[in-house]
Specification:
CATH superfamily: Phosphate transport system protein phou homolog 2, domain 2
CATH topology: Methane Monooxygenase Hydroxylase, Chain G, domain 1
Distance between the termini: 25 Å
Number of strands: 0
Order of helices and strands: HHHHHHH
Number of helices: 7
Largest sheet: none
Radius of gyration: 19 Å
Helix content: over 70%
CATH architecture: Up-down Bundle
CATH class: Mainly Alpha
Shape: elongated
Number of domains: 1
């Protein structure tokens, strides 16, 4: 392999890791802001991810340049193709986090006691996404340890399954409230829609986990 290839590959991996860290930071800060009822902090939470699309575009371009310059062998090619697939998931995560924060600002500001209690209950899903982010970040940092990767991937799947159960209970509770409070139907419906953004986030994290496993061990992408 030509000199400089491994350095270029590691730079791409580092760029992916840094983008994921910023997404995880924003996700965690949003949770903390909602727990504290601090709308100003919630608005500021989006700052680290405002340029994510531009950064993932650079990652994609850097990978294409590596393909053209170095013609990677099959194992390394698999890793780089996985990163190309990851950037699409990263962009969707960014969009869902941003959308969630933007829409939770007015809901949090105008929430009555019952709505606020429901929001607090929904944060169990956010905590699952925080844990899944931690595990995905660790996967990118222990890339050469197959057993560790498989263990972390399994933990992400557990967090994902928790969110489905939590959301089902929340949905049932919301439906009951909507039935007894006709004038709040739209507000409750919208809240459910925004909560589902977190389900989409953890779904994408599970996808990224699978792509890291493919990059290291192969299989189906």
């Amino acid at each position: 392999m030509l000199p400089g290839y491994n350095e270029a590959r590691y730079e791409v991996r580092h760029a992916v890791l840094q983008v994921m860290r910023d997404l995880a930071e924003t996700n965690s800060h949003a949770l903390e802001a909602i727990e504290a009822g601090d709308i100003s902090v919630l608005k500021e939470a989006k700052m680290p991810i405002l340029d994510i699309d531009e950064r993932t575009e650079k990652i994609d371009n850097d990978i294409v340049l590596i393909f053209a310059k170095y013609t990677p062998e099959a194992k390394d090619l698999r890793e780089l193709v996985s990163y190309l697939k990851m950037t699409s998931s990263i962009n969707r995560i960014r969009a869902n986090i941003s959308n969630y924060i933007t829409n939770m600002e007015p809901i949090l500001a105008g929430a009555d006691k019952e709505m606020l209690a429901l929001i607090m209950d929904s944060l169990s899903i956010n905590r699952c996404t925080v844990h899944a982010f931690e595990q995905a970040l660790e996967m990118l940092q222990c890339f050469d340890d197959n057993d560790k990767l498989l263990d972390l991937s399994a933990r992400i799947e557990v967090e994902y399954s928790k969110t489905d159960d939590i959301y089902s209970l929340l949905e049932k509770s919301v439906m009951q409230k909507m039935g007894s409070s006709f004038e709040l139907i739209e507000e409750y419906f919208n809240l459910l829609k925004y909560i589902r953004k977190n389900l989409k986030i953890i779904d994408r994290l599970e996808s990224i986990s699978g792509r890291i496993i493919f990059a290291r061990m192969g299989g189906k992408l």
